[in-house]
User: Which sequence fits this backbone?
């Protein structure tokens, strides 16, 4: 069988022997679309992690805000006038803060308010008032529109008086807790958790911690004899 040659005497390299029916088995190359889909999935991963972390841990309150645990389960942030701005800023990021509006700084003129402190649950920001004598937490009167009657009724009731002898004065308990608080120390787990909180609360990309400027900032701060102020 003779070969077909071109004008220069070389054998032709054409695929003349390929059956036309074989073309039906050729599929369009979708590699590019597959790669784009995979790339989009990677870009969506930080947002997915951000939503999962925020739903699990909630907004992180500043360490300077006063915390109190009236029982072994629940923890609350105490509203104080000297840290009112920081408290409100944190509370507005909680589940209750996003749904309700409450004026924490309004003047409380009723006498019963001297026996309570305004608090919010650390997990969801649910407002409450905590008795200074027995540490019972009641629903904040501004959320159920019942006024101060429940607070006064609690102070006059036998339950509060019975718990006074067991619990003692709330201010003394806070003072004792502050004295027994262990000195802070560094752990890698706490460090990673604080970085994660910074990223999620500030809506920063996860690659932020890999930026060289961030590493330089941490290294320079370590040179200070005391903790440097931000501004």
Assistant:
């Amino acid at each position: 069988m003779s070969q077909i040659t071109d004008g220069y005497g070389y054998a032709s390299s054409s695929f003349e022997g390929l059956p036309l029916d074989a073309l039906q088995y050729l599929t369009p190359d979708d590699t590019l679309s597959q790669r784009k889909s995979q790339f989009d999935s990677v870009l969506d991963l930080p947002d997915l992690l951000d939503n999962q972390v925020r739903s699990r841990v909630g907004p992180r309150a500043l360490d300077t805000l006063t915390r109190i645990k009236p029982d072994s389960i629940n923890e609350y942030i105490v509203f104080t006038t000297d840290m009112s701005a920081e408290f409100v800023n944190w509370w507005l990021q909680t589940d209750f803060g996003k749904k309700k509006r409450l004026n924490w700084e309004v003047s409380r003129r009723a006498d019963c308010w001297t026996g309570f402190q305004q608090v919010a649950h650390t997990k969801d920001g649910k407002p409450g008032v905590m008795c200074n004598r027995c540490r019972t937490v009641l629903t904040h009167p501004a959320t159920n529109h019942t006024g101060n009657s429940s607070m006064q009724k609690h102070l006059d009731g036998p339950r509060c008086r019975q718990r006074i002898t067991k619990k003692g004065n709330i201010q003394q308990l806070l003072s004792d807790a502050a004295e027994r608080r262990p000195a802070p120390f560094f752990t890698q787990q706490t460090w990673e958790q604080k970085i994660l909180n910074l990223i999620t609360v500030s809506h920063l990309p996860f690659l932020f911690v890999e930026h060289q400027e961030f590493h330089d900032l941490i290294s320079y701060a370590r040179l200070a004899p005391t903790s440097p102020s931000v501004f």
In short: The chain has nine helices and five strands. The two ends are 90 Å apart (CA to CA).
